[in-house]
Structures are given as structure tokens and as C-alpha cells.
């Protein structure tokens, strides 16, 4: 579920006891965000481990695995999705939430299929994250055409290109090779802003009038 963070249970102040875990792993390449969340999680009673990249995260987790993990989807080098799979190989019992500034439906589906318990769009604060862990294995991708309109072809292409680029560690030449397009064509596409998703369709009554 790509959650609207304004609709989370912000009135509830979660802590380690409420979540049922003692430790949490925070992986984000943005130092300020990582440290802010780390301090907040420590105040809630967690042992906190942090890392800023895939390689650093694997090394830290091997040394000190945690009950929970919060991973940024987009990082320089190997992606958070790859890290998600690696951490679950190392310790399948770790519950993991994926964070992304993109907040896209395809990205959330990828994360849930890979084993994440939930997916949150940034910005997400401490209670947004812990609340998502408390909710647990709720259905993460809504069913029904009206729940989420299908992304446009342009949006799907844009997200696919950025996923491939992330998998290539930001290497444009390698990404262009995998995508089967010229490097300059890829560079032109990367300069474009993300296309907007289709608007939510309006509900129509049987008599044809707007609801």
C-alpha cells in the first residue's frame, strides 16, 4: 500500500514494546535523515544500526542483525530492493519496510513481492514507520481498478528506466545497453520530469450523473 502519511495514526506514539521488537536497522544515503530517525528510534527504546549504502549495510547487518529494517529504495550503487532481498537471505525473520521518494505503485508492488511488509512514500516520520510495522501484513497493494488507476505508459517507461539505472549503479552506458537504446537517447529521457499518473476516475451513478 502506498500510504498517505497524513492518514496514519499520528496521534499514537509508538515504541519498541508496542512494535514487539528490540532493534531496528536504518539504511538511507541521506545522512541527516538517517541520523534524525536514529535518534528518534533510540528514544523509543530501540537498539539502532545505520548504514548509507548497500555494501555498508550488508557488512553492518552481518555483524549485528536486527528485528526490523527500514530501507531507502533509491541509493547510489545497488538499490534498496536488492538490499531487501539480501537481508532476507541473511535473516528471513527480519521485518522490512521500504521507503521511497517516488511513491509509485509499481515500486510498491516490487517491494512487497520481494518480501517487504509495507511500503511508505517519503517523507515518513518515526510514527509513520513504526505504525506500518504494527499494522503488519495488511494487504499492501489495493485491488480493484478504482483503488488505483493504471499508470500511464509514459509513467511506466519512466519508472522502468530509473529502476534499470538504479540496478546499474547509475552507470548510464550500462543502463542504455540493458534497455537496448542509444546512450544519448537515454540521457534525453533522464532529463525529463516524471510523467503524472492518471487522475482518479470519478464515480458515476447508474443514471449517468456524477456522484
Automatic annotation (TrEMBL):
<dbReference type="GO" id="GO:0043565">
    <property type="term" value="F:sequence-specific DNA binding"/>
</dbReference>
<dbReference type="InterPro" id="IPR050595">
    <property type="entry name" value="Bact_response_regulator"/>
</dbReference>
<keyword id="KW-0902">Two-component regulatory system</keyword>
<dbReference type="InterPro" id="IPR011006">
    <property type="entry name" value="CheY-like_superfamily"/>
</dbReference>
<dbReference type="Pfam" id="PF00072">
    <property type="entry name" value="Response_reg"/>
</dbReference>
<dbReference type="InterPro" id="IPR009057">
    <property type="entry name" value="Homeodomain-like_sf"/>
</dbReference>
<dbReference type="GO" id="GO:0000160">
    <property type="term" value="P:phosphorelay signal transduction system"/>
</dbReference>
<feature type="region of interest" description="Disordered">
    <location>
        <begin position="187"/>
        <end position="211"/>
    </location>
</feature>
<dbReference type="InterPro" id="IPR001789">
    <property type="entry name" value="Sig_transdc_resp-reg_receiver"/>
</dbReference>
<dbReference type="InterPro" id="IPR002197">
    <property type="entry name" value="HTH_Fis"/>
</dbReference>
<dbReference type="Pfam" id="PF02954">
    <property type="entry name" value="HTH_8"/>
</dbReference>
<protein>
    <submittedName>
        <fullName>Photosynthetic apparatus regulatory protein RegA</fullName>
    </submittedName>
</protein>
<feature type="modified residue" description="4-aspartylphosphate">
    <location>
        <position position="72"/>
    </location>
</feature>
<keyword id="KW-0597">Phosphoprotein</keyword>
<feature type="domain" description="Response regulatory">
    <location>
        <begin position="23"/>
        <end position="137"/>
    </location>
</feature>
Amino acid at each position: 500500500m502506498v500510504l498517505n502519511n497524513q492518514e496514519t495514526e499520528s496521534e499514537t506514539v509508538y515504541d519498541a514494546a508496542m512494535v514487539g521488537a528490540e532493534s531496528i536497522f536504518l539504511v538511507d544515503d541521506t545522512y541527516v535523515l538517517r541520523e534524525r530517525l536514529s535518534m528518534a528510534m533510540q528514544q523509543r527504546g530501540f537498539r539502532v544500526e545505520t548504514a548509507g549504502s548497500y555494501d555498508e549495510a550488508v557488512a553492518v547487518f552481518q555483524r549485528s542483525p536486527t528485528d526490523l529494517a527500514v530501507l531507502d529504495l533509491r541509493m547510489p550503487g545497488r538499490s534498496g530492493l536488492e538490499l531487501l532481498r539480501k537481508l532476507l537471505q541473511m535473516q528471513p525473520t527480519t521485518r522490512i519496510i521500504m521507503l521511497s521518494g517516488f511513491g509509485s505503485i509499481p515500486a510498491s508492488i516490487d517491494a512487497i513481492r520481494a518480501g517487504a511488509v509495507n511500503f511508505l512514500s517519503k517523507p515518513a516520520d518515526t510514527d509513520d514507520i513504526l505504525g506500518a510495522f504494527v499494522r503488519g501484513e495488511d494487504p499492501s497493494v489495493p485491488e480493484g481498478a478504482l483503488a488505483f488507476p493504471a499508470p500511464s505508459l509514459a509513467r511506466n517507461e519512466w519508472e522502468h528506466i530509473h529502476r534499470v539505472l538504479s540496478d546499474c549503479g547509475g552507470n548510464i552506458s550500462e543502463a542504455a545497453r540493458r534497455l537496448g537504446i542509444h546512450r544519448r537517447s537515454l540521457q534525453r529521457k533522464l532529463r525529463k520530469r516524471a510523467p503524472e499518473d492518471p487522475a482518479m476516475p470519478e464515480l458515476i451513478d447508474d443514471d449517468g450523473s456524477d456522484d
